Amino acid sequence: MRVEAIVLDWAGTAVDFGCFAPVNVFLSIFEKAGVPVTLEEARKPMGMLKIDHIRTMLEMPRISDEWKQVHGQAYKEEDVQVLYAEFETQLMESLSTYTDPIQHVIDTVSTLKSVGIRIGSTTGYTDSMMAVVTKNAEVKGYKPDFLVTPDQVGNVGRPYPYMIFKNMEKLGVKSTKQVVKVGDTTSDIQEALNAGVWAVGVIIGSSEMGLTEDEFNALSEEQQQLAIEKTRCVFEEIGAQYTIQTMAELPALLEVINEHLGDELVQS
Which entry of 69, 71, 77, 200 is 20 to 30 Å from 139 by CA? Predict the structure, then answer.
């Protein structure tokens, strides 16, 4: 038994270093609504279906209290819909500029495909958003074998496991033990754990780290290591079995996982 498929997240994992396309829009729409939010608040639910992300932010105690103070009442579903409509409009206007593949992704995916590993993907973006992302990413050299959005599983996105299961069905994988999910948010890790597949957090370029490529490169080596370890701890605390600094480490990690699978087979 060996790993047969990798399921990759998109923004912050495969493209858009630091996952800034949605973050900037979350900041903008809450500012426009009179309730400014912090980067940390905007990033905390990252990886979820975006309308669920907005609901989760509105449930945060500080934001909830501020909303009541500014608007005179607790938020309503109508407010969620208004915020989401504004989010979608702003995101679609800027999304194409956040589709550059992250370093090592193209080479690693090419290497894995060359040895027969299938590449699936999941996302918190909708079909219409991903139409922009996939078109621009493909021009730049990145194209997985399959994509599932929350639209295709009844709008039940992360942390539910259904997008991973649909990838497995399409890619023809028999066992969850033969699937590795790689992502850059705690929602990605929870999605993997709920699906019963291997959960791997990628650190550099992640939403969890929350730095642009220039910001990360401007750090001293010691500061970079501190940022890496802080992010690693978050992934491990949520339950990730493994972490990698960049996608370049993924092929070697798969050999480690294959050894575990071989040991399990012998023991059984």
Answer: 200
The angle at the Cα of 195, spanning 117 to 176, to the nearest 5 degrees, equals: 40
Backbone angles phi, psi at 95, to 5 degrees: -60, -35
Beta strands per DSSP E along 177-233: 179-183, 198-202
Phi, psi of 6 (to 5 degrees): -115, 135
Q: Within a 10 A sphere around the Cβ of 54, how many other Cβ atoms?
A: 24
Tokens 């790993």 found at = 3
pLDDT in tens, 158-188: 999 999 999 999 999 999 999 999 999 999 9
Asked if residues 14 and 202 have their Cβ atoms less than 8 Å apart, the reply is no
Output the pLDDT for position 266. Answer: 60
Active-site residue (options: 16, 44, 50, 188) = 50
Q: Give yes or no for residue 267 having a pLDDT over 70.
A: no
Which pLDDT score, from 0 to 100, does residue 263 have?
A: 78
The answer to whether the beta carbons of residues 46 and 23 sit under 8 Å apart is yes
Q: Is the peptide bond before 144 cis (omega within 30 degrees of 0)?
A: no
What is the per-residue pLDDT for 76?
Answer: 96
Read off φ and ψ for residue 134, nearest 5 degrees: -65, -40
3-class secondary-structure state, position 169: helix
* Residue closest to 157 by CA, chosen among 198, 128, 126: 126
Q: Return all residues near 192 (Cβ < 8 A) that are at least 6 apart.
A: 7, 161, 164, 181, 183, 198, 199, 200, 240
**Is 9 among the catalytic positions?**
yes
pLDDT at 268 over 70: no
Distance CA 59, CA 182 (A): 28
